Amino acid sequence: MGGAEPTAEGRTGAEGDRRRSAAARLASGRDWEGGPTRGLLLLATLLLATPAFAQTESPQQTLKRVEQELQADKSRQKQLDQQSQSLQKELDDLRARLIGLAAEERAQESDLAQLEDTLAKLEAEERERSAALEGERQQIAGLLAALQRLARIPPEAALARPEGPVDTLRSALLLRDTVPALRARADALAGALTKLAETRETLETQRRRTMAARTALADRQNDLSKLVARREELSRQTEEERVQVAQHATRLAGQATDLRQLMERIEAERRAAAEAAAKREAERLEAERREAERKLAAKKEAERRLAEQRLAEQKAAEQKAAEEKAAERARAEAEFAAAQRAPDAETVVGGRMPAVGKVTVRYGESDRFGSTSRGITIQARPGGTVVAPQAGTIMFAGPFRGYGQILIVEHSNGYHSLIAGFGRIDTAVGRRVATGEPIGLMPADGSPDLYFELRRHGQPINPQRGFGTPEGKGQG
């Protein structure tokens, strides 16, 4: 007979030792002289020695799986520790309950012993009292018999008895006094006997209760003992599982270390190759960066030249606008001078004067307050009629600050009329008026003045020039 064939567990352990040994040699560098190709070949050999489900895994996947199993074992170990602590706490609680129940049992036994001792004393007292009662009962029975016999003797016979009459009378009196005392004593003994019987019944009831409590206590102790035994068995099983999990975690930790060292060497070669490729890529990017900088510089130079050209064009445009503005200002001054030389009139270009009278302050002259007038002032006739200078819509009608009663009319093509100095306004906001339509009256006394201001797109213009073309050309 040859040697005993190794068991499956022995073969698995030897196979695991060979895998760890190969991984350790790879990690120490003794089998690395053949370069990365040989290292990968040894790694493939190591992986082929793993179970069938892991043969198709890459080294990274194998390491990840091992680490996941190791983490699962740690979690299970933690759960088992917590379960063990919980079981230990339950065992401690059960032991405390047993101690409490044992103390209760001892107290009940002590009470039962006192009850039994009291019962024994009462039984002894009962026997003594029963014996005494029996002696007294016999004496009382003799006395009662004598009394009955005496009661049956006729008076004539009693006088013929050998005793003297005095003795017979004394005996009768003595028996008459003794009978109530004996009866009271007999009644007292009967009551004591009744109380003694009640006490015995009470003690018997208490004894039955005590025995029932002792039986229940014994049953509970038996149940608790079984429960403690069950908890101890669970605790033992938990401890065994915790030891197995710890051993499995230790084996996984060794396997993870071997794989990690092998992966670190492979990763080092991969990093070296990646660094060389990164260096080449950096050189290429540097060349591209320099080319991009050159193109950017050329672009900026072109943009600078274009900006200078645009700036020159803008300056030329600004100069032209300034020249046009100067020409417009000169033309406006000429129109103002012509307006000053023009005679008074009741009409304006494209419309009518709001009132009939003499123009006392013209557009652009100083008014009575020393400010440049932006309209004209007409010295009208007292109570004269004020008409709309052109068709439009009433935008405002009523008093305004220091102007008194004023009226603002919106016309077409951006024109607005402001008329102040009314004595009475005969129109309302929102109403449409036609050219020359009466809109109010001048004050009825004194020498009233009517102020008339004409605006185009918000800018004051010479009212005597009137309403020009839609674009407002020729207005000053």
TrEMBL record:
Q: Where is this region: Disordered?
A: 1-36
The M23ase beta-sheet core domain is annotated at 373-463
| Coiled-coil regions listed | 63-132, 217-342
Q: What does the record give as cofactor? A: Zn(2+)
Question: According to the lineage, what is the superkingdom?
Answer: Bacteria
Entries under Pfam families matching the protein: Peptidase_M23 (PF01551)
The name of this protein is Septal ring factor EnvC (AmiA/AmiB activator)
Task: Please tell me the species this chain comes from.
Answer: Azospirillum rugosum
